[in-house]
Specification:
Shape: elongated
CATH architecture of the domain at 6-100 and 151-237: 3-Layer(aba) Sandwich
Number of helices: 8
Helix content: 55-70%
Distance between the termini: 184 Å
Number of strands: 8
Largest sheet: 5 strands, parallel
Strand order of the largest sheet: 5-4-6-7-8
Length: 342
């Protein structure tokens, strides 16, 4: 954050206040001394208050919200409008329209009207069909609206804070902001009430150099907040890109692992099929060999079985042969019956 020095504040005349007879007693804590009928502002308090205000506006700018610059004094109009345009912030350097904050929908209607008039006058065909008097009236309305509302053309919603130069002159803006709860930071001179605003910067609000110095300091704080927001956005985008890259790599690794698992299963299935295809041939060979053995053994059994059958058949025949011989022998050996003697 840009820090101002005492010498810069002294050179710009920030320490000069109003005449002692015009002072506000509530500004007593910020008054250093009285000299030649003029109050001198304590620059220590000014620097402290300025640092607090800068930190506040930097936080608002970092969050992406708008800060409205309000300064209708002639010596402040130019510098405030230039700084607000550079930062692309809304500003009011002409008359403050009543209800610019509290009746913002009506202001938006006026902005829409100004845009329609600019569109009509920008179209050559439509402008050629208008009467000269009507065209002049529209041009006058456009100039008037541009002068009063040109600084808030791009404001689509209420601002998050107000930066005001001379709170006595801009009391309408401060009262509307207070009613809506919008915080206000402002340059406060010795003739003003610092209790009406949230962040009071004790300083000379009449000198051009003083207004320019404080306004530029606030503008630098806003610019720093915008840059920090941009950096945060880039860092978040980079982090999201890295996370997306990591997620893609993890997904790719998971896909490769799944593919490898499927491939391994497929290889196992092919190997099992090969094993199953080779196994039946071996079993067939093994089955054929026992069949042959069985047939051979069966033949042997048949042969062995046939031999006992032949022996069994021969044994009865041999057993029967002696019987036959025995039967035949008695017939031959048996003596003939002798006839009894008469």
């Amino acid at each position: 954050m840009a820090q101002l020095t005492y010498k810069e504040l002294l050179d710009a005349g920030v320490h000069f206040g109003h005449l002692t007879r015009k002072w506000d007693p509530r500004m007593a804590p910020y008054i250093f001394m009285e000299k030649n009928g003029i109050h001198i502002i304590d620059l220590n308090k000014s620097l402290t208050s300025l640092d607090q205000a800068q930190a506040f506006v930097r936080g608002i700018a970092r969050s992406g919200k708008k800060i409205m610059f309000v300064a209708t004094k002639k010596q402040a109009q130019e510098i405030v409008s230039e700084e607000a345009k550079r930062l692309k912030m809304p500003f009011v350097t002409e008359r403050w329209l009543g209800g610019m904050l509290t009746n913002f929908p009506t202001i938006r209607k006026s902005l829409k009207k100004m845009q329609n008039i600019e569109k009509m006058l920008g179209d050559e065909t439509t402008a050629a069909n208008l009467a000269k008097r009507e065209r002049l009236m529209l041009d006058r309305d456009r100039i008037k609206l541009q002068r009063l509302l040109g600084g808030v053309t791009d404001m689509s919603r209420l601002p998050a804070a107000l930066f005001v130069v001379d709170i006595k002159r801009e009391h309408l803006a401060i009262s509307e902001a207070k009613r809506l709860g919008i915080p206000v930071l402002a340059m406060v001179d010795t003739n003003s009430n610092p209790e009406l605003i949230d962040y009071a910067i004790p300083s000379n609000d009449d000198a051009y150099k003083s207004v320019s110095l404080i306004t530029l300091a606030i503008g630098k704080a806003v610019e720093e907040g915008i840059l920090e927001r941009k950096q945060d956005k880039e860092a978040s985008e980079q982090a999201e890109a890295e996370e997306a890259k990591k997620a893609a790599e993890a997904k790719k690794a998971a896909t490769e692992a799944a593919f490898a698992a499927v491939q391994a299963k497929a290889d196992e299935a092919v190997a099992e099929e090969k094993v199953e295809a080779a196994a039946p041939a071996d079993t067939e060979v093994k089955e054929e060999a026992p069949k042959r053995k069985r047939t051979r053994t069966a033949k042997k059994e048949e042969v062995v079985a046939e031999e006992p059958k032949a022996e069994e058949a021969a044994a009865p025949e041999a057993a029967a042969a002696p019987e036959v011989v025995a039967e035949k022998a008695p017939k031959a050996d048996t003596p003939t019956e002798e006839k009894p003697e008469a």
